[in-house]
Design a protein that fits this description.
Low-confidence stretches: none
Number of domains: 2
Strand content: under 5%
Radius of gyration: 17 Å
Structural class: mainly alpha
Shape: globular
Distance between the termini: 44 Å
Oligomer: single chain
Order of helices and strands: HHHHHH
Amino acid sequence: MSEGTTRAFSGRPADELTLDRLAAGELEADDVRIHPDTLEHQATVAETHHNAQLAANFRRAAELAMVPETEVMTMYEALRPHRSSAADLESLAVTLDGYGAARCSALVREAAVVYARRGLLR
């Protein structure tokens, strides 16, 4: 992906996202959301620079870009210590699987194991 093909979630090319257009009310919410393809490109760049952890984070972010924002915030809250039971976290992982967010659901399942071991479940 070249810089000229970087795009917003709406599909609008990044070079069309200007402060002037924002001030004129010409941009919508999806024009300022990042597109999963852009995050995947960032993951590839991170890998090229031998930063596997950052690449994994970008790939999880690409999965979450397809989840409604309000649901992401609910998920974030559920992952705070002492907020969820093991069953709650498994339900969250299943929800993420439903969005095709396999990397994120795997991370939630891993978190559930760690939370149980550390006494962080509700």
